[in-house]
Design goal:
about 40% helix; 7 strands; globular; alpha/beta; Rossmann fold
Length: about 270
């Protein structure tokens, strides 16, 4: 089977760090050209430039846009550039890895200065869930999601778990998975697959913003039967593997990329068992 990745294009939303950056690296190694969207302060410029240089060292093109991926004008700008850069061929891979939301409890709680507002709730769901739908809509309208394209959205086990600060993000992840199922059915006639990837606990800048992250990290590392946390590169590898298939038959799923962390939660798998 011919590898369809070399010379194709990927659009990575949330490309400058964590899972987005690792996926861009993994795809570039396979000869995939990268269009990355990120939202960072100006002092992050050197790191983004270093990533771009790393990608191009593999022979891939790499174009980055430091804009708000949740805003309609930003989407329009990038979609127009996707059309230009790909010569109208579109993207083989779309990764939605936007991790910007409010980490506040719903009700007043000790240790938190405030409780979640309606504006913060709406923003969290719009950025982390609804924006997937809007990006897909714009790409389809522009005929930039061809048959064989793969759409991936990053979810987490937090969709069914609770932490004091995680309520709005958990709700967004639940909505994201619902969007994935709906998009999978609506894009099936076009031959486009849509799946959510449920990464295991991964030390990323986004995770480190969660107030309870240190306890959460220690627990996850203790129960994962591999004896370690999930790494961003694990997710990048999964995206590459799933993107090679020409078929759109694997679609509408939430696929665990966690080294069996979720199913082993609550059980200690010590090194003596391996």
């Amino acid at each position: 089977m011919r590898n369809p990745l070399p010379g194709s294009w990927a659009l990575v939303l949330g490309a400058s760090s964590g899972i987005g950056a690792a996926t861009a690296r993994a795809l570039a190694v396979e000869g995939v050209n990268i269009i990355g969207v990120h939202l960072d302060r100006t002092d992050a410029g050197p790191a983004v430039e270093a990533l771009r240089s790393e990608l191009t060292a593999h022979g891939a093109e790499a174009h980055f846009f430091n804009i708000n991926a949740a805003r309609a004008p930003s989407r329009a700008q990038v979609v127009a550039r996707v059309a230009d850069l790909t010569g109208g061929a579109g993207v083989r891979v779309l990764l939605h890895s936007l991790a910007f939301g409010s980490l506040l409890p719903y009700l007043p709680r000790a240790g938190f200065a405030e409780a979640l507002t309606s504006k913060q709730m709406a923003m969290t769901l719009d950025v982390m869930a609804n924006s997937l739908v809007y990006w897909v809509q714009d790409l389809v309208r522009a005929a930039l999601l061809p048959p064989g394209a793969k759409v991936f959205a990053m979810t987490s086990a937090g969709v069914a778990q609770t932490l004091p600060s995680y309520g709005a993000v958990s709700a967004a992840k639940a909505a994201l998975e619902a969007h994935v199922r709906q998009l999978a059915c609506e894009l099936a006639p076009l031959g486009v697959a849509v799946n959510a990837l449920r990464a295991g606990t991964t030390l990323t800048p986004a995770l480190q913003q969660i107030p309870e992250h240190e306890t959460f990290l220690a627990q996850a590392a203790s129960v994962n039967p591999h004896g370690r946390l999930t790494e961003p590169s694990d997710v990048g590898e999964a995206v590459v593997v799933l993107s090679c298939a020409p078929s759109s038959w694997i679609t509408g799923n939430t696929i665990g990329v966690d080294g069996a962390e979720l199913i082993s939660a609550g059980t200690s798998w010590g090194s003596e068992q391996r």
